[in-house]
């Protein structure tokens, strides 16, 4: 990568990674030419363990909202949450045309309806092989093999050359610059293990899967029909995707095979297959509540065989293991990625990545999608195929790349980051709020209240100390007494003076914090509350 600054003079193509480079999820990037911007994908990420109280994580699109930028449209490559889940939030700020294949848009529509923006959204269906001209960009969709039907790669003609985005794909066979990609079934390697499970399970079979992995769902439906098991679908997201894929013809289900969840008790356990979402241990997901016996309709029973047919996304391991432990506690037998061959990835393997590089023979290469270690390893693979180091750019969110027909250099850093969704709030929770939440979760809170005489500065009432999450009440009598004494001793020197309230609050905070730390080695959040009369 050249160390020079942004290209000047002649127009240049700018590559803008807005999300998904440095983390798993929130996939979103753009190409910009003379202030005209084409956006590709708009994903979300589920919160990591330290993001207390956060529901969803979105990419920051503030760059796209800058004056003078003309966003031409959003192209969606496929219907996974990490590529389409953030679209409703983005469209509320930039209502532009959205292009995607039939199933992809079918999965998007319920999201837009839930956000009450479906009616005003401009959704434009494209088929595999279609070409769309958007300003200076000519976008061609190319079929790829992935764990969801109707997934595409993109070939984008720009004023300085062609940009190939492979999207999420596994087996790929490319022919010259047309990039003809091979379709597959995404069930290689799992047919045998699943057949053994269906053949030997003595009671109910429960399979947890990504809600958008339609290929896997289709395989399980076929297995249920083969082994004469009825199918009940658990979880709102999976139920919606199951319904949409079936209506659009991407999921073939024999008549009478599925039953309403409310009727599951009418089916003998040995004749029932439960399909559920929640393979990542999400706290409110169907599988997590099922495993903890907190689901409103159906819960884990002894002799259930439970299959978690997905690998944990980095950061979710602890939550997945907690779910597995709960399943074992209640007598289930569990098959998951560490103990059974019940998942195959929908993403390319190392040799397939190598084959892609050799087939496309790119002049410049930018690895995308994943944590930094994954991007770096992918760049090393590109070097092994013959690309020079100055023709490879390993960048993270916000680190732009400027390209002409002759060279590629680093561009300016643009504003990016994580936008947190907490309830109805979008972007109103910042790192300082998460820091406070972690502080409260780790050490608790201690509120100190007292009443001062406005004229004399003497204490008229208190101090009263209320603690939550600091120490057991029966052990806190001495601690609270000592803390009260420290407060009184420290503010006594301000008596008969008109001291600023903020200074008194700081004094109380320091006195209580030191006392608590001295006796407990804990640092709770201390909040002084002073009333004047």
Question: How many strand segments?
Answer: 23
The N- and C-terminal alpha carbons lie at a distance of 67 Å
So, CATH architecture of the largest domain? 4-Layer Sandwich
Number of helices: 13
Q: Under CATH, the topology of the largest domain is which?
A: Metallo-beta-lactamase, Chain A
* Strand-pairing-aware structural class: alpha/beta
What is the domain total for the residues? 3
What percentage of residues falls in helices of 4 or more residues? 25-40%
Average predicted local confidence, pLDDT: 83
Q: Can you list the strand order of the major beta sheet? A: 7-6-5-3-2-1-17-18
Strand count, sense and barrel status of the largest sheet are: 8 strands, mixed
Query: Can you tell me the residue ranges where pLDDT is under 50 for at least 5 consecutive residues?
Result: 171-188
Global geometry = globular
Description of the molecule:
There is one protein chain. The strands form 5 sheets. Strands 7-6-5-3-2-1-17-18 form an 8-stranded mixed sheet. Strands 13-14-12-15-16 form a 5-stranded parallel sheet, with helices on both faces. It has a 4-stranded antiparallel sheet with strand order 8-9-10-11, with no helix packed on it. The chain folds into 3 domains: 13-185 and 346-431, 4-Layer Sandwich (Metallo-beta-lactamase, Chain A); 191-335, Metallo-hydrolase/oxidoreductase (Rossmann fold, 3-Layer(aba) Sandwich), CATH 3.40.50.10710; 444-532, Ubiquitin-like (UB roll). Helix 12 packs antiparallel against helix 13. Residues 171-188 have low confidence and may be disordered. The relative contact order is 0.12. The protein is globular and about 85 Å long. It has helices spanning 81-84, 87-91, 102-114, 191-200, 214-226, 236-247, 286-291, 317-329, 350-360, 372-384, 431-443, 477-491, 501-520; strands spanning 13-19, 28-33, 36-40, 56-59, 70-75, 98-100, 123-125, 131-134, 137-143, 152-158, 161-165, 205-208, 230-234, 272-276, 305-308, 333-335, 399-403, 408-413, 418-422, 425-426, 445-452, 459-468, 525-532. It is built from 13 helices and 23 strands.
């Amino acid at each position: 990568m050249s160390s020079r600054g942004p290209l000047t003079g002649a127009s240049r193509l700018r590559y803008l990674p807005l999300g998904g480079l440095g983390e798993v999820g929130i996939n979103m990037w753009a190409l910009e030419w003379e202030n005209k911007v084409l956006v590709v994908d708009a994903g979300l990420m589920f919160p990591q363990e330290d993001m207390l109280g956060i529901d969803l994580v979105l990419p920051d699109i503030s760059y796209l909202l800058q004056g003078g930028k003309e966003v031409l449209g959003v192209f969606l490559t496929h219907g996974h949450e990490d590529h389409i889940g953030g679209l409703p939030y983005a469209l509320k700020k930039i209502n532009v045309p959205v292009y995607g294949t039939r199933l992809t848009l079918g999965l998007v529509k319920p999201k837009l309806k839930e956000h009450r923006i479906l009616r005003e959204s401009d959704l434009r269906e494209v088929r595999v092989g279609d070409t769309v001209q958007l300003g200076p960009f000519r976008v061609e969709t190319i079929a790829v093999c992935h764990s969801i039907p109707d997934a595409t790669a993109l070939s984008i003609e720009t004023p300085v050359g062609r940009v190939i985005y492979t999207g999420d794909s596994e087996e790929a066979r490319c022919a010259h610059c047309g990039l003809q990609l091979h379709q597959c079934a995404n069930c290689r390697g799992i047919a045998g293990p699943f057949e053994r499970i269906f053949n030997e399970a003595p009671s109910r079979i429960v399979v947890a899967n990504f809600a958008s992995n339609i290929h896997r769902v289709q395989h399980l439906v076929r297995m249920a029909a083969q082994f004469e098991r009825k199918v009940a679908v658990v979880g709102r997201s999976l139920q919606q995707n199951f319904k949409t894929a079936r209506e659009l013809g991407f999921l073939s289900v024999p008549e009478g095979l599925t039953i309403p969840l409310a009727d599951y008790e009418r089916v003998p356990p040995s004749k029932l297959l439960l399909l559920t979402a929640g393979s990542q241990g999400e706290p409110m997901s169907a599988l997590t509540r099922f495993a903890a016996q907190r689901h409103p309709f159906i819960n884990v029973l002894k002799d259930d065989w439970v299959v978690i047919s997905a690998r944990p996304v980095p950061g979710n391991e602890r939550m997945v293991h907690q779910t597995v432990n709960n399943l074992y506690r209640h007598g289930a037998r569990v098959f998951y990625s560490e103990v059974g061959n019940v998942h195959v990835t929908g993403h390319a393997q190392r040799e397939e990545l190598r084959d892609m590089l050799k087939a496309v023979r790119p002049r410049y290469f930018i690895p995308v999608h994943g944590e930094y270690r994954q991007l770096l390893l992918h760049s090393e693979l590109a070097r092994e195929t013959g690309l020079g180091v100055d023709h490879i750019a390993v960048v993270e969110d916000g680190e732009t790349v400027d390209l002409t027909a002759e060279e590629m250099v680093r561009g300016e850093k643009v504003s990016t980051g994580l936008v947190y969704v907490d309830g109805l709030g979008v972007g109103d929770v910042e790192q300082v709020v998460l820091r406070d939440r972690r502080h409260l979760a780790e050490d608790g809170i201690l509120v100190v209240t007292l009443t001062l005489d406005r004229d004399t500065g003497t204490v008229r009432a208190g101090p009263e100390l209320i603690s939550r999450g600091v120490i057991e009440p029966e052990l806190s009598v001495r601690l609270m007494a000592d803390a009260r004494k420290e407060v009184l001793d420290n503010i006594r020197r301000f008596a008969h003076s008109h001291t600023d309230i903020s200074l008194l609050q700081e004094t109380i905070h320091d006195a209580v914090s030191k006392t608590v730390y001295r006796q407990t080695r804990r640092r709770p959040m201390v909040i002084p509350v002073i009333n004047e009369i």
